[in-house]
Amino acid sequence: MANWSIYLTPGAAERELGLFCLGAGEQESGPAPERALGCHALVWLKEGRGHLLHGPDRQLHEVRAPAMLWLYPGVLHGYRPTTRWRQYWTLFSGPATTALTTLGHLDLNRPVQRYADPRPVDRAFARLLRVCTTRNAVQTVAALYDLIAQAAPSQPDSVAAQLAELACTPLSVQEYAAELGLTVKELREAVRRTTGSTPQELVLTTRLNTAKSLLAEEDLSVAAVARRVGYDDPAYFTRLFTARVGVSPRAFGRFGSVSGPISSF
Asked: Using an 8 Å Cβ cutoff, are 230 and 168 in contact?
């Protein structure tokens, strides 16, 4: 591994992408001084072991390659290698980090992450290092999003996916929770961790997405679509769909399919 680095200064248009890379590189490192960054960072330890000092209490986390170190703006950190330490690294920032935190992809409480199969993370990081040297902002952002998605802490459950499967069955939140063997509080917390929203919002968006598919791809009346997605009152469904989508169900059925005219919704 050769030591190299590249630092990037995004322009105004690149910042509009919401997430931008500020630097990346490969490095063989010794002990690092304690410091706090002004941005987010990912450090992929390819070889080595030691400890990561992290947080204001200077807690030591055991690290053994392959592992991802998640570093956060303003949070103290330092490396304590006990063997040879080889790493990839990247710095990034942007308003999208707020949403990524809400969705659980950036978790301050989990600064070290290991993987049963590290190969997807390794490939994603190698791709980011490759494309950031081309200075193609869109490709670099796409690679950065892919790396964060591959490296994010695994979700301990799939409650949101299970709720989505039930969404078109007209039930109350209490009844959805009971179907999933959870309390309402547990359901809300599980959905928030995965999607950043509420069970009610997840049910609504799932119903609307299903309705869009039915309207665009099947020859069904609005009333039939309303019933299929959990609404007995087609007038209420029409008002709800129009308010959230921006066009009526009938208009979406005419123009929303991939073969129809382009419309704004």
From this structure: yes
- For CATH 2.60.120.10, the residue range(s) in the chain are 4-151
Tokens of 195: 């999607």
Residue of 111, 144, 110 whose CA lies nearest to 22: 144
Domain 159-255 fold is: Arc Repressor Mutant, subunit A (1.10.10)
Cα angle value 135/7/84 (rounded, 5°): 115
Specify the residue for token string 């949101």: 160
Task: Using a cut of 0.85, tell me whether the model's pTM lies above it.
Answer: no
Q: Quote the CATH superfamily of domain 4-151.
A: Jelly Rolls (2.60.120.10)
- pLDDT averaged over consecutive 10-residue blocks of the chain (265 residues)? 90 95 92 91 96 93 96 95 96 95 86 94 97 94 96 72 95 96 93 87 96 93 97 96 94 66 37
CA-derived radius of gyration, the chain: 23
CB contact burial 228-239 (16+ within 10 A = b; e otherwise): ebbbeebeebbe
